[in-house]
Amino acid sequence: MAGRIRDEDIAEVRERAKIDDVVREYVTLKSAGGGSMKGLCPFHDERSPSFHVTPSRGMWYCFGCGEGGDVLSFLQKIDHLSFAESVEKLAAKTNVELRYVAPGLSRPTRQPRSSIATSSNHPRPRSAVNS
Ligand code: ZN
To answer: How far is the CA of 45 from the centre of ligand 1 (A)?
Structure first.
């Protein structure tokens, strides 16, 4: 069983991954000027693009639904991955070899900033669909 991924390796994956390349696999991006890009948000229904990606900062943000984050939180949300799974997926893409800290030997665990995707298997609420 794998332990926790080392922080250095997570940082390396974040650094090597190009957020615009990752997002482009899901969203068609157009230049929005000023070095940022925009497209139709994959997280809510819209006709005009309010989903912005800023590669220089490695961040994305949707002005329509207020979702935002970095490349890892994007993968977590769009593929419903856990934090570790999103790191592993990106590591495979960016050829970063992940090293794991054995459970029990790690420093006190810091929770990843976003606790959106937990391992519990909650289906997404469908209450957003209004008649
Ligand atoms: Zn949105």
So the answer is: 7
Q: Is residue 128 part of a domain?
A: no
What's the CA gap between 39 and 35, in Å, rounded? Answer: 14
- Which tokens belong to 5? 């991924």
Structure tokens at 65: 């639904």
How many separate domains does the chain show? Answer: 1
Residue numbers of the domain that contains 8: 4-101
CA of 69 to the centre of ligand 1 (A): 12
Ligand 1 midpoint to CA 52 (Å): 9
Give the distance (Å) from ligand 1 centre to CA of residue 38. Answer: 11
User: How many whole angstroms from 87 Cα to the centroid of ligand 1?
Assistant: 23
Ligand 1 center to 129 CA (angstroms): 15
37 found inside a domain: yes
- The answer to whether residue 109 sits within a structural domain is no
Q: Which of 68, 75, 70 is nearest to 56 (CA)?
A: 70
- Could you list the pLDDT tens digit for every one of the 131 residues in the chain? 467 999 999 999 999 999 999 999 999 999 999 999 999 999 999 999 999 999 999 999 999 999 999 999 999 999 999 999 999 999 999 999 999 998 765 555 555 555 444 444 545 555 555 55
